[in-house]
Amino acid sequence: MTEAAAGPGTADRVRVRDALLAALLLAHVTATSAPRELPVAAALTAALALPLLWRHRAPRTVFGVVAAAAFVQWLADVQLPADVALLMALYTVAAHSGRRFTLLAAAVVEGGALLACLRWAADGAFLAPFVALTAAVVAAAALGTNARTSRACLAALEERAAHQERQQLQQARLAVAEERTRIAREMHDIVTHNLSVMVALTDAAVHAQHRSPDRATTAMLRVSETGRQALTDMRRSLGILRTDEPDAERHPLPGIPQLQDLADRMRAAGLPTRIDVRGDHTHLPATAQLTVHRLVQEALTNTLKHTPAGTWAEVLIRCSTGAVTVDVTDSGPCPPPPGAAPSGRSNRSGQGIPGMRERAAAYGGTLRAGPLPGGGWGVHARLLLDSAGAASA
C-alpha cells in the first residue's frame, strides 16, 4: 500500500520517518560542515527537511517552501544532501494533486536540476548528472501519480462494494417484506375461511340441537374437522419457515383436486357449491394450483359471510397449456340502489379482494370482482402460466 493510500496509523509512521530524516540530515550537516559554514548549512537543511512533516496536510504549500529553500541554497552556492527533500515534496504533490499542478511542480524541480548541474557539475561532466537528476525527477512524479491513481481506484472499489452491500440489504428487506405479505395472505385465507365455516356450522348446530340432535352432532363434528384442517394448513404454511418441520411433506399444498373437499365444507356450512373443472390440470405447478385454491376459497368465504341463507355458488375452472381461468359466481342479492346503504359485499375492506388481486398479479394475471348484471356476485381471475410472474411465484 502506498503512502497516499495509507490509513491514519500509516500516515503517523510516515511523519515519524520524515522527522527522523530531518534529524539525520541535520546531524550529517553538523558532522561534515566546517564551523564557518555550519550555521548557513544547518539553516538551509532545516528549511528543506522540516516542512516535510506537513507534506500530507498541505502538499502544495510544503512544495513551495521547499522549492524556495532550494533556490536560496542555490543562490548561496551551498551543496547539501537535503536536496532529496525536493524530490519527496514532488512525490507528495503528484500523489495528492491533479496532473496540471504535478507537471508544473516537475518543471520547477527539473529547472532546479538544470541550474544545479550548470553550477556544480564538474567540467565536461554536465550530461551524466543532468540525466541522473532528470530520471529522479521523472521517477518521483511517476510514483506519486501512480499512488494517486491507486488511491482513486481503491476508493472507487470501496464505493462500489458499499453500493452493492446497500443493494443486497435492500433486496433482502424487499424479500422479507414480500415473504411477510405472502404469509399474511396465507394466514388470512386460512383463518378467515375456516372460522367462517366453523361459525356457520356452530350456528346450525345451535338451531338444530333440540329439533334434530343428529344434525347438531354432525355439524359439531364438522366444526371439529374444520378446526383440525385449519391447524394443519397453518402448520404447513408456517413450516416453510422451519427446515426441521416435516408437516409440509406429510400434507402437500392444497390444489385443484382438493376443491371438492372445499365444496363439501361449504355445503355443510349452508352454501350449496358446485365445482366444474375443465381441461387437464395435472401439468399446473403446485404454486399455481395453490393460487387457484386460495382464490376459490376466498371467493366462497366471502359469499358465505355476506349472503343470506338459500344462496348457492358455482365454480368454473378452465385449464389450458399457458393459462388457467377461475370464475366463481353466486346467487346472492343484487347491490343496493343508488343512495341506499351499501351491503357488506359492496363495501369490503381488509385483505380479501386486495389479497386475491395480489395472488393473480403474481402470475401476471388480473382479477375482477363485482355484481353481475343479472344478479349475484362474480369473481373472475386469469393466471398466465408462462409469464415472468409465474416464474418467480
UniProtKB/TrEMBL annotation:
- Extract the Gene3D superfamilies matched here: 1.20.5.1930, Histidine kinase-like ATPase, C-terminal domain
Catalyses which reaction(s): ATP + protein L-histidine = ADP + protein N-phospho-L-histidine
Q: Where is this region: Disordered?
A: 328-355
Which molecular function GO terms apply here?
kinase activity
Supply the InterPro entries for this chain: DUF7134, HATPase_C_sf, HATPase_dom, Sensor_HK_TwoCompSys, Sig_transdc_His_kin_sub3_dim/P
- According to the entry, every stretch annotated as the Histidine kinase/HSP90-like ATPase domain falls at 287-389
Tell me the keywords, alphabetical order.
ATP-binding, Kinase, Membrane, Nucleotide-binding, Phosphoprotein, Transferase, Transmembrane, Transmembrane helix, Two-component regulatory system
The answer to whether UniProt assigns keyword Ribonucleoprotein to this entry is: no
Segments crossing the lipid bilayer? 61-80, 100-118, 125-144
Q: Which CDD domains match?
A: HATPase_UhpB-NarQ-NarX-like
Stored SMART domains: HATPase_c
Pfam families on file: DUF7134 (PF23539), HATPase_c (PF02518), HisKA_3 (PF07730)
Keyword Kinase in annotation: yes
Q: Which SUPFAM superfamilies match?
A: ATPase domain of HSP90 chaperone/DNA topoisomerase II/histidine kinase
What's the Enzyme Commission number for this chain?
A: 2.7.13.3
**What is the name of this protein?**
histidine kinase
Q: Which organism is it from?
A: Kitasatospora cinereorecta
**Source taxonomy:** Bacteria, Bacillati, Actinomycetota, Actinomycetes, Kitasatosporales
